[in-house]
Structures are given as C-alpha cells and as structure tokens.
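User: Hey, my collaborator sent me this sequence without any context and asked if I could get a structure. I don't really work with proteins. Can you help?
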Amino acid sequence: MDPAHKKYALAEVPRYTSYPTAVQFTDAIGEADYRLWLSQIVPGEPLSLYVHVPFCQKMCWYCGCHTTVAHTYDRVGVYATDLIAEIDLLAAALPVHHGGLAHVHFGGGSPTLLSDGDFAAITAKIIAAFGARDDMELAVEIDPRTMNAQKAAALANAGVTRASLGVQDFNKHVQEKINRIQPFSLVKQTVEWLRDAGIGAINFDLIYGLPGQSVDDVRRSTELALSLRPDRLAVFGYAHVPWFKKHQEMIKQEDLPGMEERFAEAHTVGQVLQNAGYVAVGFDHYAHPDDAMAKAVGSGALRRNFQGYTTDTADTLLGLGASSIGALGPGYVQNAPAMDAWRNAIHAGQLPVIRGVKLDGEDAMRRAAIMTMMSALELDLAAHAEAFNAPINAMDDALEKLLPLAEDGLVTLYDRRVTVTEAGRVFVRNIAACFDTHWQPSAKRHSRAV
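Assistant: No problem. I've predicted the 3D structure and written it out in structure-token form, which is a compact way to encode the shape of the chain:
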C-alpha cells in the first residue's frame, strides 16, 4: 500500500447507502410523516420493495446484520403472518395510481429459512397488493446451507429471478473461525439447483479481512467462485465491531489480518476478477460484461441503495419487516428493529415506523452528489448546483476538503469537475465524505474504508 494512502484505508467512513446516513435518524420522524410521504408518490411512479427476514439457522460470527437464530420454525411462521399483515397496511397507505413494483429484494438474515409455503404466500401477497411491472426483478439472498432442489424450484415458482449467495470464503480454516462451514461442493450444488430451476441470474458475496485469512486464501476463493460463473460479485471488507455485535467477540483480534494484508486481499480479489473480464462496479462490486449492472456502468445508469450498487431505477424504496429502511423523496424511515414493537404496531393497525430523517434542500443536493460520486465516479459540481437551483459555489466546501485527496492522487480537480482516479476507486467512500456536512470522524461508528 502507498504510505500516503494508509490514512484513508484506516479512516472510519460511512458506506453511503443513504444520505443522510442512519446515524442521523431520529424519533422525530414517525408514522404520520411516512403516511404523508407515501401519499405524495406521483401517479405512475415505479416502486422498489425490500423485505427483511431477521432469522438464521445459525449465527455466523462475522455477521453485522439485524438477525437472530430461530431454534424452531414457530417464530418464523408467526413473523411471516405478520409480514402479510404489514403488506396490507402499507398497500392501503399508497396512492392508487402508483406504477407498480420494478424490484423486490428479500434480505436478512436468511430469507431461505422461510418455508416454501410461507415464501410463496408472501410473494403472492406482494404482487397482489402492489402490482408488478413487466420487467420486475425479484431477488432473494440465499444461505446455501438451507438449500435443496425442492426449495430452488419453489423459489422459481414464486417468481424469483435473481439469487444472491453468501459465499464469503471457501477455505475451511477460515470458515471454522467465522462459524460458517460451507464447502465449495455445497455452493456448487446450490448454483446447479437454481439454474436447473430456471433462476439464471446468480450473485455471490465475498469477504476479505476475515480471521485467519491470507492473500492466497482470498485468491483461491475468488478463483473457485469464478468457476461457477456468477453474474455479479459483491466484495466486502469484514467490519469488526464487537461493541455493536456481541457475537463478534468470538473472533479473536489477533486472528485478523493487518492493514497491509487486508489491503492486499482487496486488491487481489479485484485483480483476479478483472483479469477474468469482469467489470469493476463502484468500489466493491464486479459484474460479468453481459450483465445489466456492467451495462449500467457504461451507460451511466448505475444506482446505489441499501443493497449496495443496483440497476434498480425506482426513486421510492419501501421497507417491510422489522428494522427495514425505506427511502422516499422527502426522506428516510425505519421500522422498529425490536420484534415486539414492530408486531404490536402492525396489530394496532399502524405502520411500524419509529425513526427517520427528513431531507432539506441542502441534504437533497448533497445526497444526489454523493450517490453520483459513488456510482459514476465523477461529478460536475457547477452543473449539479445548477440542477438544484443553487449557487455555483454551493459545495465549494467539498472542493476544499478534496484538495488533500487530489494531492495524494485519489481525485483530479478541474474547473469544479471531480473525477476519481483508478487509485482512488477503492477510497471512494472517503471521497464521498467530503460532501457530507453531517459526518464527523469518530471511532466505533462506521467501518474502515478498506
């Protein structure tokens, strides 16, 4: 790693799947605000939907998600019933003439922990309640350890078009240290089941920076992943936050790779994937050249939301399930993370929103700037300010903050145009932070940049 860049890799910065980030959410925003914002959705506007399933069969020690272990199916089945009730409440709060669903994403947790019948009932209810556009994508996150041929067929019959598999790492000694034993043969079999069922779009998640992991381990995992021909890969750096996720205390600090090793692992994944012809997407995704995400990079249509980089073009993202977050033009809302609070609100006929943030004009302008910077890797600040009817110098504070990054070769600055260099791609979160008027450098709030 270039010594001048080490300080950026060590910096703790937001991932910018939203702006303002969840750190700025407060309980000043509630159900009444959400209902008002929903009523303002314009006729014909397409919608996106995220469905959170906060259950797993076993806790992976690296996990940073909002999830819990379900020792019996009873809790999961009750949750599925309450999800259907929440769908009815949300659909009733929407204007009649919205444009239907362009994208549905089941995340978790492990959505494949749902029984085939419950998953089918939820998806059927979603389609009946919100309507589906002709090109709607229905994606689901998959734990291969929960899969069999019957479940793959059930997912396909329910309308799933894209599956995202949590691969993480294929090396047994690493898997043992993160409590996720998942042989390559199991992932390979799962991919075959999905493709045989007609689900042809396959995503993989890989993680670097895991305990006991080396550059050679990462290279092996990436090469094995490539042998299964995934359409997209998301490559995440492990965020060790045991003060926030207590189960991460099972991972020993001394087992984690150092910063130089961690950076080399991230570089190795990218090198292997790009040498195989995959297109770099933003700072942590890769797509096969034939995939819609790679084409979106070329056309400038790439977007970013709570699932990371996406081809979903809907401006309104609705959340279902405990802890889920919705993104609308006026701001963000989050459902109650606590299961009882979420359920009690639904049973009382209320949308279970407990916090959020409203965007003012400045936030809206900076949100668009950050998302453009994260996706397109360049931004004309003068044109951007003009689009928001703001003075040409409206974000000159960002230019000032970017000057040191330009000196270190991460961006080029010319006539209020900011362009991320190839060296700066991995540090685009640091670059985006220069536009953020809320963020303050502090320990134990965000993950490291690399």
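In plain terms: The mean pLDDT is 94. You can pass these tokens on to your collaborator as they are.
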